[in-house]
Every structure is written in C-alpha cells, then in structure tokens.
Amino acid sequence: MKLFRKVSGVVAVAFILGGCSSSPYLVKKENRKLVFYAQIPKARHVYFVSSLTNFRKIKATRVEDNLWKAEVPFKPGIVKYFYIVDGHVFVPPCKMKEKDGFGGEDCVYVATKSM
Known about the structure:
Layout: H1 2-17, E1 25-30, E2 33-39, E3 46-50, E4 57-59, E5 61-62, E6 67-73, E7 77-85, E8 88-90, E9 97-99, E10 105-111
Antiparallel strand pairs: 1-2, 2-6, 3-4, 3-7, 5-6, 7-8, 7-10, 9-10
C-alpha cells in the first residue's frame, strides 16, 4: 500500500508538472512543510535558497530524471527563493519576482495558512 501511495504521488506530481500545467514549477504544502518542485533538465547538483532558511542553501532531492524537490518548514508569509544549479544561480519563471539587492532577482511566493 505504501509503495502504491509513493508511486501514485510521483505520477501525480509528474502529471501536474507535465502537459497539464502551464509551468514546470510547483509549490505545495505537505504536512508542516512547503515543498518546491522544479523540472531542471540535465542538472547534476541542485540547491534551494530561500528566505525561510535565511538564504542558506539546502540540497534538493532528485525525484525523477529532471524533477527536483526541496522541502522547508512551513511558515505563512512572503517567501523569496531561487536555485543554485551546478554552481550557477537559477531563478525560475515565476508569477512574482523582486529585485534581490545584488543586481538579480528572487522569485516571490506567498504562503498562506489555508494552503
């Protein structure tokens, strides 16, 4: 039963991130965590950096060949984030962005209690 849940969960994420979604990036609340999913083809090392971690990088986990996920503790409010992919800053296409004060941008996500 657990295997079925895991497999069906991966299939659901792949379905959401596939042709049925307008973006290969997704944020979900799972238990007490925010989970950021990103399709990043050909990546070898992916780190997630956010305001929830005081901009310390955390290692993302490869879920499938091109699908990575990063989990951070859930806290309602504005979350600024980006990725480091194979040593290079990567800001995915996102609905809201903000200047980061260093000449670049961060994605901005609003985490609400009702997620």
